[in-house]
Every structure is written in structure tokens, then in C-alpha cells.
Amino acid sequence: MADPAHPAAPVAPATRVRAWRPDVPGLTEVLHAAFTSHAYPKHTHDAWTVLLVDAGGVRYDLDRREHQTAPSRVVLLPPHVAHDGRAVGAEGFRKRVLYLDTSQVDVQRLGRAVDRPDWTDPSLWAAVDRVHRAVQRPGDELAAETWLAIVTARLGRHLDRTDAAPARGRAPTLARRLQDLLDAHVVDGISLATASAVLGAGPSHLVRAFGHELGISPHRYLVGRRVDVARRLLLAGTPPGVVAVEAGFHDQAHLTRHFRRTLGVTPAAYARSA
């Protein structure tokens, strides 16, 4: 049954994306988008993702468990945890996203966010909506910062109340050590053979361990990290050809292929949306 406070609205028939980085501490990016057919492949972010789906619905897998959005819910996806996303119906979906710097929510709560990624909380929903409205009005940065503080406080309280296992630690397992190695070589890259020599484990064992623990291949993880770098450079006004090199891609065509697969639009279109 539809929530009367947040009635369903038709989804725009064409793909639309607007992304920008507001001058608000703690916000790394804001994204407004509508898709009818794009499906996000499995990927990760290096930021907390706060998601509102205003029309349609999104079905997503987070840490190998399936979830589905609802217009009244606020979704919180934790950093460095693999997830995907696809429309529930043929009408697609329309969404608004805040990407929060990891300093805004304690990373020790990451495990709780995995176990419970969404809540029906009208006050939280309204505060997130206020952030989105404020960042679209030049001169209202203080209002956005104020509402963001309310958002992060309420998220923290929800995570503290979640009946879940204790927050997952970052024990130095083989998969986590490989993740740290990939994070240290996002732009310059590292071969599987080199990683194998550094970590003292065979290449196939590394790939299996990484996929088992993180739910994504080392290659897809690294591509996702590079796409995150590319997004920020594009929003800062760097030309796509330069972004490709600075984000670790072979050339602009290589960047475009992976960027479009992940985000549904080309780097140039993403940059123009800012």
C-alpha cells in the first residue's frame, strides 16, 4: 500500500542525471537521477550512501542479501560493501542520493548498517529532503549543513538501536589485506602477481578469498574505486580525457566504457549535469 505521506509519482521516461559537489562539509557528492532500464552492476563506494527513492522502486543486493526500497524509507548503504541495483518494475525509478564522507558516520557501525540498511522514519526522511532542497539553493549552505547534522545524528541513533551483531571489525584477513593493497594503488594499479608476492598467497586463492568476503572481484572493486575518483574530478571541472589518466584508466574510451556501465551515463554527460 502506498504511503499517503509520500505518494507514488510517475517516473520520467528518459534517463536523467544531475550530480554536483556542494560546498557543504561532510558531503562529497549529491546525485539526482531517473532511470527506466539501467541496472547498476555490483560495486562499492568509499562514502556512506543515503538514498531516497521518490518514484518507482529499486531492488538491491547488499552483502548477498536482497532488499527493496519503498518511498517512505531512508536507505543507508555503508562504504566498501558491495551492492548492486535494478528497477523493480518497467517504469524504472527516480532517486536522490547524498554521499557522506566517512567521518560523518562512525565506520565501526558498518556491520549494523549491513544488517539493517533502511528505516521508515518520517523525521529522518524530511531532514534528508531538506538537505537536498538546501543544496539546490545558492547561499543556503548553512541550512544544508544544519540539516545534515540532524541527518547524521538520527542515523547514528538508528544504528545504535539496531538489534544486530556487534559492529564488524577490520581484522587483517587475507581479503582485507588485499583490499588495503588495492586502495593504496587505485590510480597506478597493481598486478595480481605482485599482490600475490606481497601477501604470500597464490593468485587464485587471493581472488577466491576476496570474492568470498567482499562479494566482488578484485578487478570490479578497483574499477569502482577508479570510477569514484573520476566522478570527483569531473565534478571539479577536469576534462574527461584528463580524468581518464588521473583516475587510472587506460584512455578516455576505457573510462567511458566502465563509467557508463556503472552509472548509466557517459563521463561527459555526468560532467555537464553539475
The largest beta-sheet arranges its strands as: 1-2-9-4-7-10
The value of Rg in angstroms is 19 Å
Number-wise, the strands total 10
How would you classify the helix and strand content by structural class?
alpha+beta
Concise structural overview:
The protein is of the alpha+beta class. Helix content is 42%, strand content 21%. α2 (122-135) runs antiparallel to α3 and α7 (218-235) crosses α8 (240-246).
Entry keywords:
274 residues; alpha+beta; 6-stranded antiparallel sheet; 10 helices; 42% helix; globular; disordered N terminus
Describe the structure.
- The chain is α+β, with helices and mostly antiparallel strands.
- It has helices spanning 110-115, 122-135, 141-161, 174-183, 192-199, 203-214, 218-235, 240-246, 252-263, 267-273, and strands at residues 16-20, 27-35, 40-43, 48-56, 58-62, 65-68, 73-77, 83-87, 93-100, 118-120.
- A hairpin with a 6-residue loop joins strand 1 (16-20) and strand 2 (27-35).
- The chain is globular and about 50 Å long.
- The strands form 2 sheets. Strands 1-2-9-4-7-10 form a 6-stranded antiparallel sheet. A 4-stranded antiparallel sheet has the order 3-8-5-6.
- 42% of the residues lie in helices and 21% in strands.
